[in-house]
Amino acid sequence: MVIIVKHGASDAQIEGLKALLVSKNIQPHVSKGSLQTIIGCVGDVADLDPGLIEALDVVESVQRIQEPYKAANRKFHPDDSAIDCSGVKVGAGGFGVIAGPCSVESEEQIVGIAKAVKAAGANMLRGGAFKPRTSPYSFQGLGKVGLEMLSVAKKETNLPIVTELMDFADIELFNDVDVIQIGARNMQNFNLLKEVGAYTKKPILLKRGMSATLQELLMSAEYIMASGNPNVILCERGIRTFETATRNTLDLAVVPVLKRLSHLPIVVDPSHATGYSYLVDPVAVAATAIGADGLIIEVHNDPPRAKCDGVQSQTPAMFAKTMEKVRKTREALFQ
């Protein structure tokens, strides 16, 4: 349920309405947009009489949200959300470029790549410390040591760190991490989503599952938000189809669709979506042109020797060329 507040309502009136909702075990979330103020109601609203609420002087109207996702719904929050990633804004005009290797391999490697991607225009650093792999015999990441190396790269470049959390038991190791990634394989690990949502207010980069619908993606975001963390960034990384020419099938249409359904920012991962470095450049430009709020791109200093995902990783030189095209695309279309 959302409550549309009358234009010109005083702060005291709004606070009174919020107190009334709290007394009925409803969590009120106030969203002051450019045209109107909305109060989203989180909780069991089945016994809340819309007629009684609408009769209040401060209330313009009451609307029920039919979709199962509430906090992530644009009806709940009409204006685009801007997620603050340690000074980097993603959404509402802010464009995040997250770049770095699939996996942290050494301090020299991650620091060198961090400096290169920052020089090319990236404003956040990605790097895997804990790696979910299809094969149990594949490289699983350096774990705690990898996180420590990411922290060194952060100190050297001041780039916020984005890295994946697989097990909530490791959460205390993520104190220096700025954005926690929940990978595609864990998108519907609901216990993990609830634990992370309740534990931290750090931004959560939520990747779409390999076969997940958009409603399922938004419901996973809802788990995080309903647990107390509103700072969610959605990520499209391609879905599994019958096509084998690319690693996954990138669904670029989700960008405008999600922007219609939700206020949360959406970034695109052209590396995992395509699986080939030569495709990352055109897909990154296309994602930018269609209105994505950011990109996450794998960059490695020596892709043929990368311990994972070398085939889809750009070199720093390739990334710099892609960033130049992305900048020109944004200047032409959005600035």
What is the topological layout?
Blueprint: E1 2-5, H1 11-23, E2 27-32, E3 37-42, H2 50-54, E4 59-63, E5 83-85, E6 88-90, E7 96-100, H3 107-120, E8 124-126, H4 144-157, E9 161-164, E10 179-182, H5 190-199, E11 204-207, H6 214-226, E12 232-236, H7 254-261, E13 266-268, H8 270-274, H9 277-289, E14 294-298, H10 316-334
Parallel strand pairs: 7-8, 7-14, 8-9, 9-10, 10-11, 11-12, 12-13
Antiparallel strand pairs: 1-3, 1-4, 2-3, 5-6
Helix pairs in contact: 3-4, 3-10, 5-6, 9-10
Textual characterization of the structure:
By secondary structure, the chain is an alpha/beta fold. The protein folds into two domains: 2-63, Alpha-Beta Plaits, CATH 3.30.70.1140; 83-334, TIM Barrel. 34% of the residues lie in helices and 18% in strands. The protein has helices spanning 11-23, 50-54, 107-120, 144-157, 190-199, 214-226, 254-261, 270-274, 277-289, 316-334, and strands spanning 2-5, 27-32, 37-42, 59-63, 83-85, 88-90, 96-100, 124-126, 161-164, 179-182, 204-207, 232-236, 266-268, 294-298. α3 (107-120) packs across α4 (144-157), α5 (190-199) packs parallel to α6 (214-226) and α9 (277-289) runs parallel beside α10. The protein is elongated and about 65 Å long.
Write a brief caption for the model.
This protein is α/β, with parallel strands linked by helices and 335 residues long.
Spatial order of the strands forming the largest sheet:
13-12-11-10-9-8-7-14
Going by CATH, the architecture of the largest domain would be Alpha-Beta Barrel
CATH topology of the largest domain: TIM Barrel
* Helix count, DSSP H or I runs of 4 or more residues: 10
User: How would you sum up the major sheet?
Assistant: 8 strands, parallel
The domain tally reads 2
**Silhouette:** elongated
* Number of strand segments: 14
What is the succession of H and E elements? EHEEHEEEEHEHEEHEHEHEHHEH
